[in-house]
Amino acid sequence: MNLQLASELDTDHEFGTTEAGRAYTWAESDARAVAALAYIVTWFKARGLPADTTFSVGAGGFDRACYQRIHPEALMAKVDFLQWNVYATSATHTALARFRRIKDWAVADLGPIALSRPVLIAEWGVRSAELPDQAAWIGTVPAAVAVLNVERGPRIVRTNYFNSGWGRLVPKDAGLAALKLAYTTRPYV
After folding, report:
1. Distance CA 53, CA 127 (A)
2. Over 80: is that where the pLDDT of 153 sits?
3. Do residues 159 and 113 lie in contact, with contact meaning Cβ atoms separated by under 8 Å?
4. Stated pTM of the model
């Protein structure tokens, strides 16, 4: 079981936050979140969770500075995965390019503890509004993951298609067939 402690801190904090009438900037909000997340993980681990319980902290991955701020080594020492969400929202977005962007940030910007963590892509998807042939795009994901996993840096070990407004399968049957095929293709098998 993985406990995802935040889904997309960059999206959550983009315009700052307010608590008890006080406004915090994006960077201040990130710093407060990192402290809170470290506390939460420590609290949970002290409670004797099942041995296979893991932790991750999410990023939508659209802002590199935020990505750096929410992955300090002290927090990365407490979590088990690097986690991000990846969506194709343009006809020019290939699976390889979308997945590579955040991996490249990790390799360039994060410390050795963070880079020792495997990657959990908690949400990925492709919008039919920009890419009407979602099934074809989904079919390129296994090759993209395979390419990235032979390159320097953390390995992608788990991915989860998120059938939401950002990735709702249209038509559903074709999308599900593409996902089934993708998840029965190397490197997934």
Report:
1. 32
2. yes
3. no
4. 0.91
